[in-house]
Design a protein that fits this description.
The protein has one domain: Metallo-beta-lactamase, Chain A, CATH 3.60.15.10. It is α/β, with parallel strands linked by helices and 204 residues long. Helix content is 25%, strand content 32%. A hairpin with a 4-residue loop joins strand 1 and strand 2.
């Protein structure tokens, strides 16, 4: 598995392209903007995009989803709780197309020969999820390196995000952590050094 990070848009949202190096099939996580940049990477590396996974419905994580889906034929997956038709808010501009699929906690999406397990991690938004693939966590805006997502937007809840952080920190062993913004980390590091994780583990 090869993980390529492409920061996109004015908020530099991390779009991830997860590639099966044996088949050259890939999955795109959070295509938030700059569809041309994402599509150019796919084309330049002769990849076939078979799925698009959305960690949550905010505009900076979904802005290029339709274009990438239309150009590649990939299926889009997201949590219904963050669909624009449920969250009538300017921060949620994305409505899953008719060809898309809603996922829920515990679902496993098998794509490009890889299994992507959906972990419900609300708090930043109602429909926020973490996507687990092997020993990698794509945490969206739930867990950042040294921090966590804001909870003051529509659908945010401070207690929920602490419970979500506790769920992630309670996973056994270590994981690579690929967040929605800023640089990557490891779960061991966040358990030890992240104030919000430490509080979640001690108080929730």
């Amino acid at each position: 598995m090869l993980v390529k990070t492409i920061p996109v848009g004015h908020l530099e949202t991390n779009c991830y392209i997860v590639t099966n190096k044996d088949t050259l099939e890939c999955v795109v996580i959070d295509p938030g903007d700059e569809s041309n940049t994402i599509l150019d990477y796919i084309e330049d590396n002769k990849l076939k995009c078979v799925a698009i996974l959305i960690t949550h419905g905010h505009y900076d994580h979904t802005g290029a989803a339709d274009t990438v889906a239309e150009e590649t034929g990939a299926t889009v997956y997201m949590n219904k709780a963050d669909d624009r038709r449920v969250m009538n808010s300017p921060a949620f501009i994305y409505a899953l197309p008719d060809s898309g699929v809603y996922f829920a906690d515990g679902d496993v999406i098998t794509a490009a020969g890889m299994d992507f397990e959906i972990l419900s991690t609300p708090g930043h938004s109602r429909g926020s999820v973490t996507i687990k693939c092997g020993r990698v966590l794509f945490t969206g805006d739930t867990l950042f390196r040294g921090s966590c997502g804001r909870t003051d937007l529509d659908g945010g809840d401070t207690d929920e995000i602490f419970r979500s952080l506790k769920r992630l920190c309670s996973l056994e062993g270590d994981y690579e952590v690929y967040p929605g913004h800023m640089e990557s980390s490891t779960l061991v590091r966040e358990r030890l050094l992240n104030y919000y994780c430490r509080r979640a583990m001690s108080e929730y």
